[in-house]
Design a protein that fits this description.
The protein has about 300 residues and is of the alpha/beta class. About 25% of the residues lie in helices and about 20% in strands.
């Protein structure tokens, strides 16, 4: 898309190498590029890719030692979740948040499908929204079906590059269509056997929003592992841990068994959420942190 909003079919000129990143795709959704027009059909040839302010990657499915850039130059990652049909675990949410922290991408949560929540699910949604909001992650409760909460979302999405990510079936595409009725992104159904979403989006795609800004819709994720992480980095990606690291007795504290651990003390005193700490241990115990499974 040009500065005048004209859409052009483009191809890459020769071989592109992005310094410091070994990826299967040299150009990604969200990149700013320079291109020249050629031929009678006026197709474009990309000759340069501007430096990225940020990007988020996953492990390549076919090449284990390569990464695939999902999107770049993102203003905010929105994790679209649901308390039921399908249920999004906090383990999944925290993995995405840790990745966003690592790549310096502001993140927020959207709990969709509130129109179908039971009283118990409503209580759980309220508790999670309070938890994540207290950690600096804005949280929203919406219904794509009934339109509840969409006006507030439009305000924060406007004039920004927004990335939506989450499990298949949580209603990402339906939510985007509800936010901007001019978009007609294909939506899927929920499997009655597994109560999980049946994948419809097959690749990341950016859509201009009628009220300003852009939306990047991504394929539904079954599991999200961490890419290019070392175990010692993980605690730094939990904001509530990060604020206490300087108080631990040992600089290389893992916050598991060491004496004088400020994180463990805060956990015992209720200052750190037990579920978040459990998810932290799960990340530490991963046999292979460099693993991402897209479906």
């Amino acid at each position: 898309m040009t500065e005048s909003n004209k859409l052009c079919n483009c191809r890459l000129k020769g071989q592109f190498r992005i310094h410091g990143i070994r990826t299967t795709n040299p150009v990604a959704v969200g990149d700013h590029v320079e291109f020249d027009m050629e031929g009678a059909e006026e197709n474009g040839v990309i000759k340069a890719i501007a430096p990225r302010t940020n990007y988020i990657v996953r492990r390549s499915i076919n090449l284990s030692k390569s990464a695939h850039i999902i999107a770049s130059n993102i203003d905010r990652l929105y994790i679209v979740a649901s308390i039921m049909l399908p249920r999004t675990s906090t383990g999944f949410i925290d993995r995405l948040l840790v990745t966003a922290e690592a790549y310096h991408i502001p993140a927020a949560l959207i709990f969709n499908k509130i129109d179908i929540y039971t009283e118990e699910a409503q209580s759980r949604c309220s508790d999670l929204m309070k938890l994540y909001s207290s950690l600096g992650y804005p949280s929203y409760a919406v219904s794509a079906l009934e339109g509840t909460g969409l006006d507030a979302l439009r305000l924060v999405l406007s004039e920004k590059v927004n990335l939506f990510s989450g499990h298949s079936g949580v209603g990402k595409s339906a939510l985007i269509n509800a936010l901007d009725p001019l978009l007609t992104i294909k939506t899927g159904e929920i499997s009655s056997y597994h109560n999980k979403g049946m994948h419809t989006t097959t690749f990341a795609e950016m859509h201009p929003l009628a009220f300003g800004g852009f939306m990047i819709d991504t394929p539904g994720i079954k599991e999200f592992g961490l890419v290019h992480f070392e175990s010692k980095e993980i605690s730094e990606r939990f904001p509530e841990f990060r604020a206490l690291l300087h108080k631990c007795r040992y600089k290389n504290c893992t916050h598991v068994h060491e004496p004088g651990c400020a994180v463990k003390q805060a956990l015992d005193e209720g200052g750190i959420n037990a579920e978040r700490y459990h998810n932290y241990l799960g990340l530490l115990n991963d046999e292979n942190l460099d693993m991402t499974d897209y479906v």
